[in-house]
Fold:
Amino acid sequence: MTHRSRRDWLSEALRKIEADFNRSADTHLIPLDLPHTPGITLYLKDESSHPTGSLKHRLARSLFLYALCNEWIGPTTTIVEASSGSTAVSEAYFARLLGLRFIAVVPESTAPPKLDAIRFYGGEVHKVDDARKVYEVAHHLATETGGHYLDQFTYAERVTDWRGNNNIAESLFSQLSHEDHPIPEWVVCGAGTGGTSATIGRFIRYRRHATKLCVADPVGSVFHRNFHDPAIDHLPEGCCSLIEGIGRPRLEPSFVSSVVDRMIAVEDSQSIGAMRAVTDVLGRRVGGSTGTNVWACLQLAKEMAEQGISGSMVTLLCDAGERYGSTYYDDRWLADRGVEWRTEASLVRAKFTPSDPNGPLYRSITK
Structure:
């Protein structure tokens, strides 16, 4: 292929991705009242409404644009990624849009509906038994096929324009502009690559907002440990979380702890319980990482109320729960893994339900 024809292909590939973006509306911001903490409103930024159903649609688009503009991808390039599922689903979508082969390297434990979605968009699935080996296997496959390893864990923090350009931070602040508290006290998100937290944290500082950024992290993750002790950059083998998409056993290059104001470690049972409760409140299923975020938000709301602070906070509804029907929404699957979530679900559900503030239930969830 000549230089001119390659540039023509590149121009057309970029046009297709930009056209796809132009066809997409912004994601909704859903307000949730917290009747036991008057004056505090929680908003969910509903990222499940993207064409591929998750927050990772934004990342996949940015990764493709970055690789295209660096001319790392051509008309016959095989695209390879290491993923726990959702990023690969979105990347398979963009690879199909460009007519490129796509291979997702995923842990054996990845939820089957995510694998089905990857295949639906024309992607291939390569499973590995040890989640820690997804990186090296992806790199090997890219080399073997003469392809390109997108490497979300390295590039996530740099592929998005953190100053604006309709990134997730600019979007949520714009949507809050006519609310009672347009500048939130907190924005809460998880970290898988660290790209979203880096974008939001940098944007907050760039716009000189007083907002603080909290990262909600599974207990079985290295990020919150590294935040408190920079010498910790990996976890022992066997230490992990059930929550897909967030939390990692190794410190990823895209995690920028310096723009994070606080981290809250959340048990898997708390994430699942909160997920189930939010599902009841919204009347539709959400994913496990949304439960992680909401659990952290409720802890922050309690602290705000104790300090007499009113205001707003925003977190992410990362993906829909339909992909987890055989895992997080399967009681037997959870029981087999020793996850007792019902008490946590009841506590979170009560947070969204008006009740007697002097009664035993309210006291039990605010102690």
In short: The first strand starts at residue 29 and ends at 33. Residues 11-54+160-366 form a domain with the Rossmann fold fold (CATH 3.40.50.1100). Residues 356-367 have pLDDT under 50 and may be disordered. The beta strands are 29-33, 40-46, 79-82, 102-107, 124-128, 148-149, 186-189, 212-218, 262-266, 311-317.
